[in-house]
Structures are given as C-alpha cells and as structure tokens.
Amino acid sequence: MKRTLTSALIAAPLVVAGTFATAGGLAEAVVAPAPAPVAVAPVIIASGKDWTGAYAGLSLGYGDVDADGVDGDFEGTTFGGHVGYNYDLGNVVLGAEFEAIGTDDFTNDETGLELDQVLRAKVRAGYDAGNFLPYVAAGVAQATVDGDEDEGYFYGVGVDYAVSDSFTVGAEYLRHEFEEFNGGEGDISADTAALRVSYNF
Fold first, then answer.
1. What share of the chain is helix, strand, coil (3-state, %, to 5)?
2. What is the CATH number of domain 53-200?
3. Could you tell me the pTM of the whole model?
4. Most exposed: 17, 55, 157, 193, by fewest CB within 10 Å?
C-alpha cells in the first residue's frame, strides 16, 4: 500500500508535465493574416466658379490715337458701359459683348480734332482659371471723330477676376485699326487701356 502511494505521487508530476508539453509548448504559433488594403477614392477639388451667365458693367480708361498726316498729341480719358454673356465650357470660356465708350477732353492739341465716341461689338475666348479669367478679344468698332463716323476692327487681351458670384473686376488692352477713315487717305490707329467692373446676373 505504501509502495503504491509513492508510485502514484511520482507519476502525477510526469503526467502533468507531459500534458503541458503536448498542449502548448511544442505547438506552432498561429499568425493572423494582415488586413487587405482599402482603396481610397481621389478627392476632386472644384474651381468654385462657373462663368456662364449675363453681365453688365462700367469702365474707365485711357486712350492714345495715331492718325496719318495729323500732328500733335491725340489722347484722353475714356469711360463707358458694357453688356455681355459668357458660356463656360470647362477649361474654355466663350463670350460676346457690346460696349459703348465716351471720351473726356479727347482732343488733338494742334488740330482740335476730337474723338467723340467708340462703339464695339466684341467676341472673347478665355481660359477658366478658377476665379481668374484671362482672355483674348476681337471684333468690329465704329469711331466718331468730329461728327464723322467710320468702321474698323480691334483686337487685344484682358483678364477678369471674380470678387464674388455677383461682382467681377478686370483690366483690358485693345488695339484699334481704322483704314482710310471716312473715305480719306489716312489711317487711324488707337490704343486703349481700361479698368472694368461688372455685375453678374
């Protein structure tokens, strides 16, 4: 009886140790698989400005005239109003505009000839750069000098900046050409630069 109890006490630790060795000590570690990567959609940033719509505004500028066969300075201040419409195609903005320009003391120093007004029908093509719109412009013009009228053409560049959805400010330079003005032999060229402000409808 005493020998049986002693044998049991010796065997018990061996059984327990063998159980632990089999259960966990010699088993391979289980590694969880890494999570699959998640695709993230790209963030598209809108320019925030759609140039499509009608507008009307005012301009204030300066002009210089070069007339064949006429001596003396021929320059002065210009002011006027314009109405137009733009259509935003994405990167390109197309537009049409009508403008009436008056003058203040736009008189030749030596001859007394005076530029009374200029009417312009204009087409514009610009690049949509968000709140900025740089553009090229061209069209036909009618000038009145001392009551005589004649038609010519013009071309130039400009830029508009959208201060808000309702208001736009800008600057524009145009070169005008009137060949054989009013049936005469002389040509007239005119350069104008103006600051503009417009209300967008």
1. 15, 60, 30
2. 2.40.160.20
3. 0.73
4. 17
